[in-house]
Known about the structure:
The structure holds two protein chains of two kinds. Among the domains of chain A are: 177-197 and 228-334, Elongation Factor Tu (Ef-tu), domain 3 (Beta Barrel), CATH 2.40.30; 451-534, Arc Repressor Mutant, subunit A, CATH 1.10.10; 536-594, Orthogonal Bundle (DNA polymerase, domain 1). Chain A is built from 21 helices and 22 strands. In chain A, the strands form seven sheets. Chain A has a six-stranded antiparallel sheet, with no helix packed on it. In chain A, strands 11-10-19-12 form a four-stranded antiparallel sheet, with no helix packed on it. In chain A, strand 6 (98-104) and strand 7 form a beta hairpin. In chain B, the strands form two sheets. Chain B has a six-stranded mixed sheet. In chain B, strands 8-9-7-10-11-12 form a six-stranded mixed sheet, with helices on both faces. In chain B, a hairpin with an 8-residue loop joins strand 1 and strand 2. Chain B is flat, with a radius of gyration of 26 Å. Chains A and B meet through strand 16, helix 18 and helix 21 of A and helix 3, helix 4, helix 5, helix 13 and helix 14 of B.
Amino acid sequence: MGASTLLLTGNIDTIAQMSCNPAIGGQAKGQIVREIDALGGEMAINTDVTGIQFRLLNESKGPAVQSPRAQCDKKAYQFRLKHTLELQPNLQVFQATVTGLIFAAGKVVGCQTSLDIEFLGQTVIITTGTFLRGLMHVGQNKNEGGRLGDFSAKSLSSSLLEAGIELQRLKTGTPPRILGRSINFTGLQEQKGDLAPTLFAFHDTRDPEDLFHVEPTGERRLGWKPGSEQISCWMTYTTPESERIVRENLHKSAMYSGEIVGVGPRYCPSIEDKFVRFADKPRHLLFLEPEGRSTNEYYINGLSTSLPFDVQVDLVHSIPGLEQAALLRPAYAVEYDFAPPTQMFPSLESRKVENLFLAGQINGTSGYEEAAAQGLVAGVNAVRKVRGENPMIIQRHEGYIGVLIDDLVTKGTTEPYRMFTSRAEHRLLFNHGSAELRLYQHSLNCNLLSLSRLGRIRQKALAIEYWENYIETMKTAGGIWAEKIRRSEPLNELPAGFLAQPKEVREETLYRVRYRGYLEREQRQIEKLKDVEKIKIPSSIDYLAIPGMRRESALKLHQFRPENLGQAARISGVNPADISILMVLIAAANRSQSRPPAAG
Amino acid sequence: MSFPSDTIAALATPVGTSAIAMVRASGAQVATLATEIFGATPLPRTVRHADYRDARGQLVDDVLFTYFAAPNSFTGEDTLEISCHGNPFIVQKILEDLLARGCRAAEAGEFSKRAFLNGRMDLSQAEAVMDLIHARSERALAAANLQLRGSLGRHMNSLISQLINILAEVEAYIDFPDEDLPTADRKAVLRDLDVLTTATSRLLATCHYGQLLREGIKTVILGEPNAGKSSLLNRLVGHERALVDPEPGTTRDYLEELILAGPHALRLIDTAGLNLSPSPLEKRGIEKSLEQAAEADLFLWVIDTTRPLPVLPPVVAARLSAANTIAVFNKCDLPAVSPDLLPYNFSSVKISALTGRGLEALQAEISRLADGFKVGVGDELIAINVRHAHALEQAKQSLEAAHQKLSLGITSELVASDLRVSLDALGQISGKIDNEKILDRLFSSFCIGK
């Protein structure tokens, strides 16, 4: 986009450092990564190049719910991204801790830093992760910081509060890291990567020089081809002894002793929670995941805890294969501030402070992918704001990023928000392979991709359209191709011209043909919703003064301030009659600029 | 700015029995709709007389209809006004047919709202329109709440809860393929789906007054062989030929006819005779009539006055009461051998099915009992009923689709897609159901999280 940008970070050496396990993708998140790639983001390519294990989840199910997942080399991932930023034109990276914001006339105009250097800018994006008043717990032990070994952003919170932004606490946790050579792998079940890895970036439309834009000599410099030379993960289970240790020491856990006030995620429970809430489950599955090629550190996925360190040691040793394991870093829980996301516009700009954008965990989300998606949207919209252009708003029916942001700004969240495919009404349209096609219009409008890549996406879309039409209309022995495909009849051979198409074209075409009935049903539902999405609600509206509006709805609308009627209708407790009343009011306001209606 | 315009339909005159009722449809599809129903492209602003036939080609009523082309109509959109006989049953049939043809049941005050949005009302009327929407929706809401607080609400909550359970079960394996979940038990899900489908059908059937309106009051004609049951049926049917709607008899071996008695629709069912010492051949027919009797709303007990007074089998007698039974003394054109005194307190009517004598008195008596089935109905309840039934039917169909897919082993996100359509349909009755509920259930029943 070419905007002059400054990136401030407390520590340049930990840019893109993954605080939890170095895994990217998985259910719904894998689709998000592909959407990020479709919008010109870096996450997909960075994962492809630094991935050490690739698996396609749900391969036995339909394409809509298949998700790529990769285990990355933690340090390679981080350094490659740092390098990418260093090479990015118009971007200046600088190391300093932001201590506060500078406001003028209700708008943000810059920030102060720990070095007493002030930076001014037309828009500011805050991405604090778990660092905003971060407090880590290991049993009764407490340390300030957003990640073990790192600092805590202590004073920024007061600057946000001062500007009228409400803050609350959330909590998350991470398991112990152990030394690989202290693990006894005999008897443990191995989990290998896929023989044919599913990569995240759209290599079919990407410019060739894009793939290795950091690695000057390509594969040779990298040492391996993306997706090759994969490393395995390993599976083990907790034992009755593990359960006994946890139960006997429950009172020492930070979470169970009332030390922690923040709300934790239900989908990522601590081992304490698992034993207490699912007492009938005899054992819990754990994954031993390598953190990189050039380290012997392993991550025990599934053993998140805030028990004291000595208990953690006993707990780890009670697990088959880990009897002699050496702990490199303890598990800990971390509490941090977040700003309930209903305080934002769908552009991710704060409603309270103009020109201030928020992205990532500060908005109550969890996960690298959710954060990256918001960072991208906030970045694009901060630039567009400066240039006086309309924000890029991805709709709920266009992709998971649309669902994510719409959920955040219209519903808010009470736990760290993670994306699931079941959150999307139109999941069947969100197969990971179609991300580029779904988001093409946004990439084009906002100038997010090179012209050559946009051209290739367009060509791909046309080829799919052509072959879809061909297969739907042309006959072969025993009927029309499409009908044979939908009846799952054996096909002698698809047309040669079609088989000569790239894999991406073939897969998307066949998906559309095979699932036509379902995809059309979803499209019909979307068409119905689209009309109300288009009706903008004037920001000056005073809900509390609308005649005939139910009090409960008026209060909800007043709180959430929806941008359009579609959003208003999704707010729970707002019924169709309230929407009807709102519609009349908007029409009246539009018809009479000179004489605003009573509530205008 | 353009406001959404799907095609909506509702009763435009007050609910209840009156001489004439008017059903209005408004929206872009109206001209196509009129052509489909009445067979010709309508001329604007011309009153036409025509037969109303439903989508299956069955005659519903003879009606007057007027087509208004946009923008010269009340709403400013293409509008169709259909004046039919003021019988709730006919109104219901027409509304249901319009919904089946793709209309949506209008929200409270929606016609006025559209009139305003399309500039057919003065700006000064904006507040009046909002008040109207508010008032109507409050009334509709009150009626709906009344039902939802009662047994309908309990049933709805139970259906929704069961469906969310099933969805959570299916979704868990989609969203958490890498977790250590117990092996998916397809048979258990299929069983749960069966239970839910049955419960949905039952609720659909027990929306009682709604069902009486929709399907007619189930009226069983009982009596000994040759008492004149079939003649009575033919007589009643012949008397009201305007609204004969023979059900396809493929699944039933007894006769069933729809007739009108005053404002009420009856589903007349002729049964085999109630011989107390049946021959093996008759036995099946009698079992069938007992089955029928168990589900009936109203009984016409036909007694042959030329023969000694019959005795009712105890299982049948237990179902009969003064509120649901009329003793019909037939063959009163012939000399009677038995007195018209019964050891029961049923009302009685003397008729001759052969000559038609006493038929009007019988109809009046049927009408009187049928009135007793009518529960207190508030304004717009009829619209709620059409909507409820429509939504439940939709829910049921999607459940059946999901069941079929699951048993064929079709991939689970498609099963979930059908289940969600079903959940949305139930949500049309009980209020929108947030996706979050599925996740809540999922996290409480499965140990998720690595």
